[in-house]
Design brief:
heterotrimer, A alpha+beta (536), B mainly alpha (314), C mainly alpha (241), B: 11 helices, 0% strand, globular, C: 241 residues, mainly alpha
Amino acid sequence: MEPSTGDSRPMQGGAPTHDRTSASPPALLIRQAFPSARPMGGELATYHLTATQAQWSMAAAAISSDAGNRPESPSRLIALWGASDADGRPLASAVYGLADGLLWVDLPLDPQSRQYPDLSRAFFFAGRMQRAIFDLGGLRAIGADDVRPWLVHARDADARSPATDYPFVRVSGAGVHEIAVGPVHAGIIEPGHFRFSVSGEKVLRLEARLGYKHKGIDARYTQLDPILAGRLAGRVSGDSTVAHAWAYCMALESAAGIELPPRAAWLRALMLERERVANHLGDLGALANDAGLAFGLAHFSRLRELWLRESDALYAHRLMMDQVIPGGVLVDLDASMVPRIGQACRSMAEEVQRLRAIYDEHPGLQDRFRGTGTISTALARQLGMTGLAGRASGLGRDLRHDHPGQPWSALSVHLCLSSQGDVAARVAIRFDELLESLRLIEAIASRLPPGTHHRALRLPQGHHCGAGAVEGWRGEVLVGLEIEVKGDRSRIVRCHSHDPSWQNWPALEHAIIGNIVPDFPLINKSFNLSYAGHDL
Amino acid sequence: MASGLAGQMLAILAALALAPILSGWVAQCRAWLQSRSAPPLWQPWLVLHKLFLREVVLAQGASPLFSAVPFLVFACMVTACAIIPTLSTDLPLSVVADAVALVGVLALARVLLSLAAMDIGTAFGSLGARRDMLVGFLAEPALLMVLFTAALGAHSTALASMVDVLAHRELAILPSLAFAGVAFTMVSVAENGRIPVDNPTTHLELTMIHEALILEYSGPHLALIEWAASLKLFAYSCIGIALFFPWGLAANDSPLALLFALPILVAKLALGGAVLAVAESVSAKMRIFRVPEYLAIAFVLAVIGVLVHILLGS
Amino acid sequence: MNDLSTVGLQLIDLLAAVSLLLAFGLLIQRRLTALIDFYALQSLVLVIVTSLVGWLTGQRHLYLSAALTMVLKVLLIPILLYRLVRRLRLETSHDTLVKLPATLLLGLLLVIFAFDVARPIAQLSTAIASGTLGIALAGILVGFLMMISRSRAISQVIAFLAMENGVFLAATAVTHGMPMVVELGIAVDVLIGVLILGVFLFHLQDAADSLEAGGPASPTARLERSGPETPKPRKARTQTP
């Protein structure tokens, strides 16, 4: 299929779930600019269009100005990546979030110049994505300020470029010195290098250097069968395996134009909430430990372990890896397990409430949490933050709440929100979401619709695009996918997994400014971003 | 002079042997309080054994000072333990140094460690040295004031005679010691790098104080420093016990009295260690800029202790 | 005087010192709940001192005074204050007007001053625990310092109560307690004072709240209000005006 510029490609099947009357200003604008734009199939209303360079910039400007003008606007850039289309021609892709769904813009590039208009002026965090795009595919943003390498540290295998060669931004002045931490840390955590410019104990600037876990996920996708690649998606970031796998499966199902059996969607939601609970439990313990209160770690570790064992009993895998498969889920939930799940949720909620009271009443802990690593709502909007950290800074976005497909619409997910933006707020949001997830799990388990939990996926012939977005525990996980099916051979033309950590890593660097060096581990843990999901 | 020799030797040996056990006991209590299964009591000894068997890896550009410091610090701590009346107040070595000199010996160890940390030239070493000096220069005046409160009653700055007076006076309660006791507890926590001032078990480089100082040490060097750190905790515990709970100390060198004093000391240390573990388990680490406030409180309380002593004129 | 009363005298001195220690605790503590705890503890110390003096001097009415203190200052007033703090959601009070080390140094100066002033008076006094006067005076002055170094009304109330404790301690130690009528009068006054201040604070908070809500509400605040009810305890500004 030839992508013709300025024309949108109508996607396969599926009923559009959006409501045209409540379209946001940029959506209207784009609809006027691309009259033939039609939503793709699948659970999320996703518009897909192929743009010219002017239209690419116009879309970015419209969405960025809408986000800047209306404080409550949901318009945002979600992901930006480079790929090549079925004929091997370079392509830049951006996915935006709008009030009534997602907008996926493809920009075919000139194979010689391999350049596309810069987005980092419109969207702050796009800068790093553009650097990553250059590292991975050699596509260059026209007029980008920062052209340092990002994900790939050494272009040829022999030349190792140690962190010392990387041109960090220098802060100069009397008494300013640098502290370098990582990529090897004293604890068992993922690798990343942090360069602090400090004056005394006060941090003037932090610059992170990531990419130590780069492993070529996007390229590996193209070598895999579309059905089997779901397993790779589940391994992009181990702590978000359900979210990533679901996003991939959603994309594939949207490309194939099939409707998911209701029971399968509910069972996926059950696992997604279980994953959220497990991660929040782990983080809440670690946060107390980083503030020196080992008591919190001991108890939340115990609760997390109990929770993971329960997952193991239900799914034969503690992290529920490979449970979400294209077309549904691997195992059905036995009706006899429902009372057990409800019981586990209630006792967990009780224990969490008790620990929350201890956290809230602990003067030392509250002294460390409050006012530490603050990001104001205005700054959060400017940085384009997402997910849990965004909600702690007053950005009330949650895919489960904003675009309630099945099963969320039936559950009326509560949006947990705080405008404080400090570590205490991120802790409070974790507690709120934890309790909300426990409520959801109980509701999902008791109200599971009947039917099949898996429907075999038949991929239709030809080229098909699909997108999937899931609110993982960190934020919105997005997968953009194009498949090609010829006869009985199917392949992935391009696929990109986007982790919300992309948006929030730059926010971490802002959160630490003006704080003291010993508070960094606490602030870092309050974000708890993925290295693996970011480094791809 | 030779009269107290046996007691003196026993006191030093007891300090060397018991100090790591005390650290192990605190760790054990903390583990229990967090519902974890605890490491054995002698775990610090196993760690020391392991470290002594290893070879020393020196950082690039380390000067001879860096290698000498572990021995000097260890010697300082042994000296401190030798002049603190742990088992008996009849200590021949106590004429070597009085309470003021004791504070000096402890300060010397601190300065040496900070110099060694800066010797390597890493960011963490300098960071740790700066933080440690911040804690030190605020804690030492408070410690001196606490010791002066006790010294005022005994009309002597020699630790042994101070404790002797405190232990053998008529049954009397000194209100000044209430202030001194609170101040001393606060200072000891800060000086020994315990929560809430420092976290001895942290792996987060950016938050460390004491651990950042010794990041570059390895093998027997590290073993000596770890041993010295537990000796320091032991020394502070023993000062606290000697000043505020001096009952049961042997006044002379008779074997029976010493034999009697040892289990009492162990029992008091066990109790003190358990209290420390409880205090550590229920507190979070404070921000580093709260430490000056914290130590200022300790200092003011110690001064009030002196004032109350003068007011009540006892 | 026998041995027992010597110990008793020393115990009174010690308890007075503990009371001063707690006064300093009140001076430096930021958490309101901890302030109330410290106040209750200080009152408990006062109860013990009063009973002890009563026992040593054989003045029965001091037992009554101790019982009154126990009921009023160890139990009733702290409970009232706790409810006030919970109802008004005033968990932390970052209300110190003077930096902490400066406050401490001022406190130290006040102690020196109090001790110096009390010495000649104590020598004239024939009461059993004359040394306590200086400590009690220091406690009063430290409470006074706390009162002027705090900006929040509730902290000032607690400071006032701590001062009142100091006055009682001085009276008990130096003159073996005030006449019963005076003591009862003071007790009722203090209770009424706390009650009135409680009501006053409620209205103050209401006024402040409505002032805040009258301003331009942020979109997030609006979102927060429109959201469904959730388990979100102790969120600031959830009281609807």
